[in-house]
Amino acid sequence: MRRFRLSLLGILFALVAQSTLARLTQMFSPVFSPWYATHIVVVKTTTIDGDFEVLESWKGDLSQGSRLIIPELIPPPTSLPISRYPAQWTLRDQSGIAEQIPKQPVGSRLILFLKRNTSSQENGPKPKWSGSSGRSDKESLKISAVWIDGDRTLSFSQHFSTSDPLVLSALGEISKQERRFEELSVEGLKQKVLEVVHLQEEVEVAAAEKDNRIRASLLKPYVLSKIVPARMFAIEELGKAGPPAVGAIGEMLDDPAYSEWDSELVDAMVKAGGRTVGDELNRRFERDVAFWERTGPTLGRGWWNEGPTPSSPLRNRYDQTYRLVVGLEQIHYSEARSRAIELRNLWLSLPQLNDPSGLNEMADACQTLIKQTRDN
To answer: For residues 322-344, b (16+ Cβ closer than 10 Å) or e, as one string?
Structure first.
């Protein structure tokens, strides 16, 4: 479905920019892993496999000297120290060494990104700890840990596709200046992690403000955050702030600096205001219909793929218009029916707009709105 492909493309661009492909493939993320962890600790290995001693705490209430038992990080009998792993893993590598949790010398350091479990499941209590990766299987902790080798950091990831095995390799990112892979040092990773942790603390304080109007104002700057989960959290909390947040959301929709997130902000406005924002949504919808009436006939086939980035103005405008149509349908706003008919007819009349690869979803959404308001 096109909507899924749109969202996936936007996420991919955002995550690649921050080395956070972990939420899409199986991979450690220096952005998402700290955000979703309840505890982040530097630990050292002991004489007992899977038994770790806390050296430093970067997040949570585990103190230095605490002991953690993590059975999922027990090395298999055939595993080797990192020093004996292949220098570079390839698809032709059949040894499987890099796919195993390494057997490090006693006193070796790891950084663990953990979630403390307190609830139960069908077969009894959950394990005390799981990984912050978002996965629920046995690989969760494997991709929520970073091994330290000297000043290098290594983590498990899939190099090419989701069908590839998880292999331990250097953690790093693509340099924007030189366009080459740069390994991430322990100190570099710590700085990135603490930046995320401190930002999370700030935005959660803003979200805790009891006055919804003030809360919306405090959350507003975080919508522009380069830290993806902070931005997602801020927009979600705006939607929870109720009608007093509508004004602040409207200001962001009118500000070009927020244009990349217009569709998400429209969703937040609908959640915050419900039926009370009908006139506001319809005003914006009428403006968008006029835009497409002017612009649609001038576009060529394949316009969607010209400059395919999340900040492409036409893509952003399409997403905003689509979310406006969906929002008006959700609140049963019958006054939008005539404009929805206009946009549907325009879309159906222009092959470059009604492209069956997915752009035709706009006409489908308009038809749903038309039918819903007619039935009312």
So the answer is: bbbbbbbbbbebeebbebbbbbb
The radius of gyration of the chain's CA atoms, rounded to the nearest angstrom, is 24
pLDDT, tens digit, 9 for 90 and up, residues 78-93? 899 998 887 665 555 5
**∠ Cα 18 22 25 (to 5°):** 130
Tell me what the mean pLDDT of segment 151-160 comes to: 84
pLDDT (average), residues 3-11: 34
- Name, in order, each residue with C-beta under 8 angstroms of 2's C-beta and a sequence gap of 6 or more: 357, 358, 359, 361
Runs of H (alpha helix) within the chain: 2-17, 32-36, 186-207, 212-219, 228-240, 246-253, 262-273, 278-295, 313-330, 337-349, 361-375
Rounded-to-integer distance, Cα 243 and Cα 166, Å? 46
Q: What share of the chain has pLDDT > 90, as a percent?
A: 66
pTM of the model: 0.84
Look at 175 and 57; give whichever has higher pLDDT: 57
Cβ neighbours for 68, distance < 8 A, ≥ 6 positions apart: 41, 43, 51, 52, 53, 54, 62, 112, 114, 129
- What angle, 0 to 180 degrees and rounded to 10, lies between the N-to-C axes of helices 262-273 and 313-330? 20
